[in-house]
């Protein structure tokens, strides 16, 4: 019988350590910290466990100095570690290389996985991106109607180009219902087909706050959207899946508003520049005509063609008049265009809506006052009727007609003479006063 190889304890532990380290490499785990210890050496020692098992772990100082969280008892963490054996005791353990909060870490891992998947599917391909329209009259904004993002977008667009119409498609931009609401608003905007470009936006936040924009279904819907899309989500450093899928990414909501509007000052500068160019061209043309005229005059002086001179002079006057007329027409067209822009600005001014609203308010106030006077009058009439009814049935009216009310000492009404004893004094009340009386006889 062949004798088996005999290990020493140290040798066996060393072999097991090599098998574990070579067979597994780095692994990712999620677990709860227990028995945490941080001795003076700066290393961390703890147990990583779940509801069914546990494993010892160590994180040396050169690695734990890069950890952004403070480990605590009971904390759920996501770690990257190497599997090994602590040979002196034969303990199976983890050497932690990286640690982060389990919630944020898992979200980041899911984000990276979805990003890689969609990138492989071609959703980020620059060749599939649509260019923004050169002329934009109506902009759709999918965002929270009460958030800071929509206020920034509206403020920038009002300042730069108030003539551009904005349609808000309201949706939650945070929480469990947010992805579905965003998807519904995107589908509604596509179905209506009423805008030139769509902005999907919200303000800044953490990875959890922006998570609804990392939805795979929303990403496919953005990719298939026939309307050019702009993603303006969070701050400049924030990136979501929607940023990669959209046709254009804006660093902030305000930057998105600037992309879809033209500054009025730039338009006026263009008009002024064109006017200057026209004036220069006209001046150059006039100079050229003057040179030509002098040249022709010199030739005429040499050849004395009086008739040709007259024709050329007439032609020069005609061209001059046509040039002046053309310049005036062009200037008038520019002025008319500028007036049209001003009229559009005035038409969109909220003061135009204020006067009808004030008139309606006055009419409602007058109707309210009329209704209140009618109600008070009816109430007064009912009160008078009630008073008259009460006066008719009042016992005082009965007494005034010659009747009397008899009362005993306790103030009780006497309805039968038998209720009084002989010689008993009682009170008699008549219309103009009252007096005492005594019962006589039996």
UniProtKB/TrEMBL annotation:
CDD domains: ExoVII_LU_OBF. Residues 7-100 form the OB-fold nucleic acid binding domain. Residues 123-437 form the Exonuclease VII large subunit C-terminal domain. It catalyses: Exonucleolytic cleavage in either 5'- to 3'- or 3'- to 5'-direction to yield nucleoside 5'-phosphates. The keyword Aminoacyl-tRNA synthetase does not apply. InterPro entries: Exonuc_VII_L, Exonuc_VII_lsu_C, OB-fold_nuc-bd_dom. It holds the Pfam family tRNA_anti_2. It is found in: Cytoplasm. Its main location: cytoplasm. GO terms for molecular function: exodeoxyribonuclease VII activity. Keywords: Cytoplasm, Exonuclease, Hydrolase, Nuclease. HAMAP family: Exonuc_7_L. Bidirectionally degrades single-stranded DNA into large acid-insoluble oligonucleotides, which are then degraded further into small acid-soluble oligonucleotides. NCBIfam families: xseA. Belongs to the XseA family. This is Exodeoxyribonuclease 7 large subunit. It comes from Pseudidiomarina fusca.
């Amino acid at each position: 019988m062949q004798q088996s190889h005999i290990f020493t304890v140290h040798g066996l532990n060393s072999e097991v350590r090599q098998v574990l380290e070579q067979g597994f490499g780095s692994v990712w785990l999620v677990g709860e910290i227990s028995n945490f210890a941080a001795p003076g050496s700066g290393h961390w020692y703890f147990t990583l466990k779940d509801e069914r098992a546990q494993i010892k772990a160590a994180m040396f100082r050169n690695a734990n100095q890069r950890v952004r969280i403070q480990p605590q008892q009971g904390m759920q963490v996501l770690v990257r570690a190497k599997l090994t054996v602590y040979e002196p005791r034969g303990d199976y353990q983890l050497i932690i290389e990286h640690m982060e909060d389990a919630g944020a870490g898992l979200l980041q891992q899911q984000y990276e996985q979805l990003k890689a998947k969609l990138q492989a599917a071609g959703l980020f391909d620059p060749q599939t991106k649509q260019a923004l329209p050169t002329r934009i009259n109506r902009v759709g904004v999918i965002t929270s109607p009460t958030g800071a993002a929509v206020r920034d977008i509206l403020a920038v667009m009002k300042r730069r180009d108030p003539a551009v119409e904005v349609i808000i498609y309201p949706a939650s931009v945070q929480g469990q219902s947010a992805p579905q609401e965003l998807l519904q608003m995107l589908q509604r905007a596509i179905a209506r087909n009423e805008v030139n470009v769509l902005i999907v936006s919200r303000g800044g936040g953490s990875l959890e706050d922006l998570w609804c924009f990392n939805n795979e279904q929303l990403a496919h819907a953005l990719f298939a959207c026939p309307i050019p899309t702009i993603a303006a989500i969070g701050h400049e450093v924030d990136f979501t899946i929607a940023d990669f899928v959209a046709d254009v990414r804006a660093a902030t909501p305000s930057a998105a508003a600037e992309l879809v509007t033209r500054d009025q000052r730039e338009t006026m500068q263009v008009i002024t520049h064109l006017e200057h160019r026209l004036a220069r061209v006209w001046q150059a043309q006039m100079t050229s005509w003057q040179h030509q005229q002098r040249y022709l005059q010199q030739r005429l002086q040499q050849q004395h063609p009086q008739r040709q001179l007259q024709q050329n002079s007439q032609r020069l006057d005609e061209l001059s008049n046509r040039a002046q007329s053309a310049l005036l027409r062009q200037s008038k067209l520019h002025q008319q265009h500028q007036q049209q822009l001003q009229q559009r600005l005035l038409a969109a001014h909220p003061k135009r809506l204020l006067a009808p609203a004030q008139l309606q308010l006055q009419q409602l106030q007058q109707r309210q006052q009329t209704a209140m006077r009618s109600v008070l009058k009816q109430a007064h009439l009912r009160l008078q009727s009630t008073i008259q009814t009460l006066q008719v049935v009042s016992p005082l009216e009965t007494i005034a007609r010659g009747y009397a009310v008899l009362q005993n000492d306790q103030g009780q009404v006497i309805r039968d003479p038998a209720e009084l004893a002989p010689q008993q004094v009682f009170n008699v009340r008549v219309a103009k006063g009252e007096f005492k009386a005594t019962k006589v006889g039996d």
